[in-house]
Amino acid sequence: MEASKDSARITAYLRSNGIETLFNPSLQEHLTLCTFLQGEKICVQGEPLDSLYVLVQGKVKVYTTSPEGKTLILSFKNPLELIGDIEYVRGTETVNTVEAVSEVIMIGIHHRWLKKYGNDDPAFLNFLLKIITNKFYIKSNTLWFNLLYPVEVRLASYLLSVSFDASDGLLTGRHSTASLKDAANLIGTSYRHLNRVIQQLCADGLVERYNGGILVTDREGLKKLANDNIYE
Fold first, then answer.
1. Could you say which DSSP state residue 175 is in?
2. Residue 173: how many CA atoms within 13 Å on its side-chain side?
3. If you placed Cys at 157, which of 3, 36, 164, 226 could pair as Cys (CB 3.0 to 4.6 Å)?
4. CA-wise closest residue to 162 among 136, 137, 142, 186
5. Which pTM value belongs to this model?
């Protein structure tokens, strides 16, 4: 992570996301601009987290890991989103792992400043409440999706989320065999079953196989199969 105290850029990101009044003047003095590279983890399940982050540019994926080491994708997040809100309110270790899908820019603030200047701020607390209640709604839907949607829908949604950013710009159309093994875990299926689904997507012209992985060739077709995108 690269951290900066560039107040002009921080103000610009606050304005562009419509949250210039979210942090009162006392809190704004302690904001930090944080840049995470693609693949870098913002926080890791079970580890301490001492800051709250506001996602203002880029895309992240949120996933959980079982005691046996199996992972399950929960959602992909685009701006505007909070990272570490539940941990801040509950005073607990990180609930889920959050990883940058693209280069990500966040505005961070340490918990000690939030407790000192934010705990009695109605605007900040109201925003926090809205974000947290929305997360519980999404989590409920995610569990429903993984139970009811077939693997081809989950895979199509996953490919859309990791291949394109919030503005539909291409992040990467190529996905290696190793990343597909991770994808099988993340969407809750076996790698063998995933391969059978990939064969069908190839037959339908949605993806192509290449030496070492697959290439997304029909974004609109994937969107139709995925009902736009169940993970976003």
1. E
2. 14
3. 226
4. 186
5. 0.82
Helices 151-163 and 177-186: angle between axes, nearest 10 degrees: 120
CA angle 176, 180, 181 (to 5 degrees): 120
Six-digit token string for 125: 């607390």
Looking up tokens 């005691």, which residue turns up? 67
Task: Count CA atoms within 13 Å of residue 121 on its CB side.
Answer: 19
Question: pLDDT tens-digit profile of 62-84?
Answer: 999 888 888 888 888 999 999 99
- Label residues 134-150 b or e (16+ Cβ within 10 Å = b): ebeebbeebeebbeebe
**What is the rounded average pLDDT of the residues 22-34?**
96
Structure tokens at 58: 């880029």
User: Please, are residues 43 and 49 in contact by the beta-carbon 8 Å criterion?
Assistant: yes
DSSP H helices, the chain, are: 7-16, 25-28, 85-90, 111-117, 122-148, 151-163, 177-186, 191-203, 219-225
The H or E element that residue 106 is part of is strand 104-110
Of 138, 136, 181, 162, which is closest to residue 226 (Cα–Cα)?
162
What confidence tens digit (pLDDT) does each residue in 96-145 have?
999 999 999 999 999 999 999 999 999 999 999 999 888 887 777 766 76
**Residues 6 or more apart in contact with residue 204 via CB below 8 angstroms:** 221
Q: Please say whether the beta carbons of 39 and 100 come within 8 A.
A: yes
Alpha carbon distance 60, 52 (integer Å): 15
- Spatial distance between the Cα atoms of 99 and 158, rounded to a whole number of angstroms: 14
